[in-house]
Amino acid sequence: MNVPSSITPSAHQPLQDAEIRLVNIHSWNKDSTRVSCNIIQGRLEILSFVALSYVWGPLDETVEITLNDRPFKVTTNLEAFLRYAAQDKARQHPDETNASYVWIDALCINQRNVSERNAQVRMMGSIYSHATRVIVWLGIGGDYMKAAMNHAQELSPLTVSLGGAQAIFMPENRATVSDRFHDTMKGDNNERKAMFEFFKSPWWTRMWVLQEVALAKSVTFVYGDESIGFEHVYNTVVQIYASMVEDPVLAIKTLGLSIEEEATITRVGHVVNTRALFEHNYADRYRSTGLQSLLRMTERAKATDPHDKIYGLLGLISDLNKDDLSPRYDISVERLFLEVVVWFLKQYDSLSILGQCFSGYSRNLLPMPSWVPHWEPKDEGDEGPSPFHWEKYEDLSTSKVLEPYSASGNLPLSS
Q: Per DSSP, what are the bridge partners of residue 166?
């Protein structure tokens, strides 16, 4: 979580243990020229609030708001949400007798205070799980976004009618789903374009979304003045996956999925499936949320601060105690990644983590030992990561089942 150089922390008072800040967004009125907010703070467990999940956007593109009666600069995308919320509040509560509070990282954490960032990021999982709702802000929206959400609402009832996400993968249901899905998504139609534009939203690429969505009590996507519940998006995504399970060649070739679109579907699937693991407490939740699994899942996720490639997962990791790895933004990224590898080697007596070492080309690799994976965000188009696969999978081009790569031949380190 980097901080724009133009954002000032002057509105923040020191926090006590287990305290957080919340933002009250004032109603927009006919005389308003910019967004106005005030901050309160208190102990997390006694506060009621919603939490925001969003893309910061370019750090050098800022707009001034008023925070606690002082000028305060925020990124343009955050200002767009604050303006939307202020106008929506004016419509629903014109007399502003009801204060409603939102947790927003850029406003509620003093981003220039490293000690505070460490403490607040440690609490991030608790913040999102305690919030009454998580709002996913996708920006002003547009015609494609509205079309995508309308299409998701049209597809969603099929998942429900067949018995839900797990039932949809039963052989007797997959064919029905596959036929329906292919009819609506094949070719160069508007529904297909809209859905993939939605899935390509920068929000899906953020490192933090996995934790923010998985731990939420409920999730609502908001775009412009429109909104949709997460369940509709989830029900649509599982239809895509069921279609690929039924006939992967048809799903990839007949639908004409490009490599980019395949990667996009995989990325979206990671987010919705991780939420399902936590929401329904599926049996494989512990295995699927181990450190190694999550790091592999988020290898292409983006983070402004490379530390967050690790810290953005802390609220999810099932095989890590909080005391094993606490946020420390004052240490180098190289040291952090090295400490993660050392922890894994000691914890599992295994070299399997080396399967994540980057063997491709990147312009901006950090200077680290070859046995430390490069988890830092890569530029688009960089080759890699490692060709060493870490789990069993079927190569569709040869129909061969490949066993997981094991640097130690499955022997423990202690042997």
A: none
Measure CA 83 to chain center.
Answer: 23
Examine residue 412 and say whether the peptide bond preceding it is cis (omega within 30 degrees of 0): no
Which runs of consecutive H residues, i.e. helices, occur in 44-104? 76-92
Q: Which residues contact 185 (CB under 8 A, 6 or more apart)?
A: 191, 192, 195, 255
Q: Does residue 95 contact residue 27 with C-beta atoms inside 8 Å?
A: no
Beta bridge partners of 23: 39, 102
| Strands, E assignment, 196-293 | 219-223, 226-229
Tens-place pLDDT, residues 89-100: 888 766 655 668
Cβ-based neighbours of 208, under 8 Å, separated by 6 or more:
53, 124, 303, 308, 312
Task: Phi first, then psi: give them for residue 71, nearest 5 degrees.
Answer: -65, 140
Beta pairing partners, 22: 40
The residue to which tokens 């042997």 are assigned: 415
- pLDDT recorded at residue 389: 45
- Nearest CA-CA partner of 38 in 54, 14, 21: 21
Strands (E), 26-166: 36-43, 50-53, 62-67, 70-75, 101-103, 133-137
Q: pTM, whole model, 2 decimals? A: 0.85
72, two tokens: 């305060």
